Amino acid sequence: MEDNPAVALFLALGIIIIASRVGGAIARRFKQPRVLGELIIGVVLGPTVLNALHWSVFHGVELENTIKELAELGVLLLMFMIGLEVNVRELLKVGRVAVFAGIAGAVLPIAIALPITMLFDYGWQPSLFAGVTLAATSVSISAQVLLELGFLRTKEGNALLATALIDDVLAILLVSLTIAVVGGGESESGGIGDLIIIMVRMFAYIGIAFSVAWFILPRFMTWLEKRPELSQSYGIPATALILALLFGWSAEEFGGVATITGAFIAGVGLSQSKANIKHEIEEATSYIAYAFLVPIFFVDVGLGIDLNPFPISAIPLAGVLLVVALISKVGGCGVGAKLGGFTNGESFRVGVCMISRGEVGLIIASLGISSGILQTGTEAGFDLYASLFLVILLTTLLTPILVRLVFSHDSEAVRVGE
Fold first, then answer.
1. What are the structural domains of the chain?
2. pTM for this entry
3. Which residue in 93, 94, 159, 414 has its CB near the most CB atoms, within 10 A?
4. pLDDT, tens digit, for every residue of 360-373?
5. DSSP state of 273
6. What Å distances lie between residue 380 and 64, 113, 126, 208, 320, CA to CA?
7. pLDDT tens-digit map of 11-64
8. Tell me: the pLDDT tens digits for 221-245?
9. How far apart are CA 271 and CA 95, in angstroms?
10. Can you give the pLDDT at residue 189?
11. Which of 1, 7, 9 is nearest to 66 (CA)?
């Protein structure tokens, strides 16, 4: 094993997948989504409890980065599969809801968190960044729960996906603007100029990517199907995976948006393919995604969490920010959805689906450290980062429970096919 690091990786992946199955089964036993069990088992395997990746059986082989890369591939395929589930005509019907909910759900966390964090004797710069961190949403958590429960293709499911796309764009804009103005050391004009470039780049990419996915990908798949020498031996699913990877790469390379956004767009485009082509893609891809890579992603979220150094002094701030995180997303997205035309029940469910900060929140918080806005070298700075870290963890763990609760106990929500 010392001579071949891949052997250690094989053992680690075996442990992770077995643990994810056990965690998911336990969660289902208690009538909770599998993803909740996978997240919790990840925390148990991580440095908080077992620190499994550093067991002596791995002979010191560094596994974290490789597993994280596989996890990123897992979430990319997850969002690609979710894109394949999308009914675009239904998605367009909730466009107004998505705009209002996305904007309100991003603005309200900042508006509440900024003054409250300042009450704990933090300056406006780190307080602003705390609000920006809480403005993020991890769509992959809620989308997987809705897919598992059979509610992804409801009005609220479509609204979640459309709102999350708006939220992704706004989160990147807010982070970029905050770093440029607060932590970038650039002039104000330079910051504004950079922001304009970022906006043009993102919107141009999303427009072009959707156009290519919508008009070209289904026709390309039909053309491919007519050529047996290319389409046989899983040629169509292989091509679909290639497209998901290329769209994911192009999203960050050319658009400056998350790779999962590109994969989602590719999935939406391929969802317009002929029924037999779409079925072949879904059947082959789902085995790779749900049996292997997606569980690695959810377990890896927990593996990256270490609560051991959490300072007691940060608990009051963490408690307050947790309340802010819950109220601001449910309230902001809920009110936005209501303004967009949803009923009270539908609006509330959309708000609950947007609670999770997940890996997106962790990424934004890490940007706060690298930019110098969150100065973890000081006691106060570390307390703020630790508080945000705990809030991100708790919102991620609470979301599957709350989503199942609000959909299972509300007669307005209609399952797919009912």
1. 5-13+15-21+23-69 (no CATH), 71-408 (1.20.1530.20)
2. 0.82
3. 159
4. 887 788 778 777 88
5. S
6. 29, 17, 11, 44, 16
7. 999 999 999 999 999 988 987 878 889 989 998 999 989 999 999 999 999 999
8. 999 999 988 888 889 999 999 999 9
9. 19
10. 42
11. 9
Mean pLDDT of the region 112-122 = 95
pLDDT digit string (tens) for 163-180?
A: 988 887 788 778 877 876
Cα 133 from Cα 118, distance rounded (Å): 15
Tokens coding 359 = 């890996």
For the chain, the residue count is 418
Supply the DSSP string of 30-94, one letter for each residue: TT--HHHHHHHHHHHHSTTTT-GGG-GGGTT---HHHHHHHHHHHHHHHHHHHHHH--HHHHHHT
Q: How far apart are CA 73 and CA 171, in angstroms?
A: 22
DSSP for 209-259 reads HHHHHHHTHHHHHHHHHT-HHHHTTTHHHHHHHHHHHHHHHHIIIII-S-H
Only one residue has tokens 């769209």, namely 247
Tell me the mean pLDDT in the region 377-390: 85
